[in-house]
Amino acid sequence: MLFRSIPFIYWKEKGQPNKGMGRAARKKDTGDGKMVISLFHRHRQGLAVLMLAAAVLVTMAVKRADISSAGKSSPVSSTAESAPPASSASGAAASGKTAAAAATGGQEMRAVWVPYYTLDMSGQQQKGKDVFLKHYTEIVQNAKARGMNALVVHVRAFSDAMYPSKLYPWSHLTGCTQGTAPGYDPLKEMVRITHGAGLQFHAWINPLRVQLGAAPSILAEGNPWNRFSKDSAKAGWAASCKSGKYLDPGWEGVRQYIADGAAEVAANYDVDGIQFDDYFYPEDSDDSFDAASYRAYCAGKKAGEVLSRQDWRCANINDLISRTYRAIKKSRPQAVFGVSPQGNLENDRKIGADAAAWCQAEGYVDYVCPQVYYNYNNPILPYEKAVHSWRSLVTAKGVKLYFGLGMYKADTSADSGSWSGSTDIIARQIKTARAQHCDGFMLFAYDDMMAPGRQQEVQNVMKMFS
Fold this sequence. Notes:
By secondary structure, the protein is α/β, with parallel strands linked by helices. It is built from 17 helices and 13 strands. β7 (238-241) and β8 form a beta hairpin.
């Protein structure tokens, strides 16, 4: 079926959503709010359904032009576009199932995130290839010694690249000004070193973020913020809000641009997988953020045909995820594509991430890794309850379920002090999740795993991995 009504299952929660800025800012979803399972369908007038179905047929009949030559600027036109096309999803999902099995070698995923600030050479006195490679080699050795079998490494944090790219400028994290080549290919070397140690390498991408506050302080001429602003056909493709600058996924051209960027990594590097994290629409974005793209979407539509802004944003992100999945499979069929959303599904929806759909339909992802950074005695969203709910949510064939665990909270005063004084919370969380037959774990983050005050917690995790 080209048009189908997919139920949304989400946790409707009362209370304040997470106000953090994602993993890289180290502010995590606390799970505030009462969890209730809610199931409903979107209803649209019959005429709207027929028009949306027709839109899908037209979309599938027209070959999407290359982003660099077409300069497309049309926003998503229907909810149906957010679902993977039936003709391509089945084949891609089949290859994705094989890829997921190959990437883990049939073993439990045991990964650690390596965020951009762990790799950042910009503030170091000694820079260059040798210094970077020595530092990264130590990361790999330390991760392997602690039972990890995979690294999820930041390769595009601010619409820039830790590799030579035709779409994005060089990252300032190499120690140079953004846009300046460091004289070597960090991604190529990181993949080589990681695989040489027998570990998997997953490339971690922030799909929309350009600048967080004043970081990076200088945006290269080749940065999409500057490049799009000089092109009248793409002038609205990037937008700003209080927290920073971001790409606006309300434009089809932006979604294709991001998908092409992921495909570029998959095509040019022997990565085991590519991951998007929980940075989608900025949490502090109001209607002014995407006013132009939403206005373009609404133009010419009758009453009953227009999605609410929130549903439209979710449709845009669903389309982005589906496009990226297909682009990666075309470039490197054996590579897996996954997303690590917040553990709180209502908070996900508020930033346009309809994670429930990705769990329930083939053709979006090979895995999901919700960030369930909650303790057992969280009064609102206890860890065990969150794990049970996510386990029941993942029903699509071939989609694996990993759990993101908050090593950064171990033995801290986080969550009203419920983590302090304990040295086995993460180990117990692994045991609980295994009882739900999950497929593995990802720990946030490398620096926290290496912190002197958390080594007893790490030792207990290592026992679970031995």
